[in-house]
Design goal:
The chain has 197 residues and is mainly beta. The protein has three helices and 15 strands.
Length: 197
């Protein structure tokens, strides 16, 4: 099927970043080459905040965030796992996160993490952090996880609107009222885009 992409201007999308914190944890490598990332002493909510000019900030209960965010295998979020290694030292591991599990009783959060070895930082901070860490510590202390925004998604156009229209690639937006990643526009918008095509 044909696909039509909408650019950022058309979508008028607000970009969010999400932060999770804990007092310790482990990276355990499995047979597939991926890791089980376990965070202990985890704060039971995820902080979210938006890019300018929106300036939206808030707390999402951890269970609601994990249920509403997109951690699927097709387009999982990237995350910077920032580890404190002492007074003046820190490590950063960049990974794709999937399969989250939150144990509220034991304050534990677990992900499957695929470490991105070829990740580079394009930032004014490159003199401090130039790339992802080569040596991944199996156990660590205080940790912050910075997770990127909701992934793009596809919305199908009903054939009654326009025969053979195909699919529209659209942004998935963070909705603060129900803590979910969902399509950024309403059905009328999609219908008009299908008809334009």
């Amino acid at each position: 099927m044909d696909e039509m992409e909408l650019n950022e201007t058309e979508m008028n999308r607000t970009t969010f970043i999400f932060i999770q914190e804990g007092t310790g944890g482990t990276f355990v490598k499995d047979e597939s080459g991926n890791y089980t990332l376990t965070i202990t002493g985890v704060v039971p909510y995820t902080i979210y905040f938006s890019d300018r000019p929106e300036r939206v900030v808030g707390f999402a209960p951890m269970d609601k965030f994990l249920d509403g965010f997109c951690f699927g295998a097709i387009d999982p979020p990237n995350a910077a796992v920032m580890l404190r290694e002492g007074e003046n030292e820190s490590d950063v591991v960049v990974a794709e996160l999937t399969s989250p599990q939150f144990d509220e009783t034991n304050s534990t959060l677990t992900y499957t993490a695929k470490v991105l070895d070829d990740y580079t930082f394009n930032s004014d901070w490159s003199h401090i952090i130039s790339k992802a860490d080569d040596a991944i510590p199996e156990a660590f202390g205080n940790v912050s996880i910075v997770i990127d925004d909701c992934p793009d998604s596809f919305v199908g156009c009903d054939k009654s609107w326009d025969e053979g229209c195909g699919r529209i690639k659209t942004g998935c937006c963070w909705h603060t009222w129900d803590f979910t990643c969902e399509a950024c526009h309403n059905d009328e918008y999609y219908v008009n885009k299908c008809i334009e095509k």
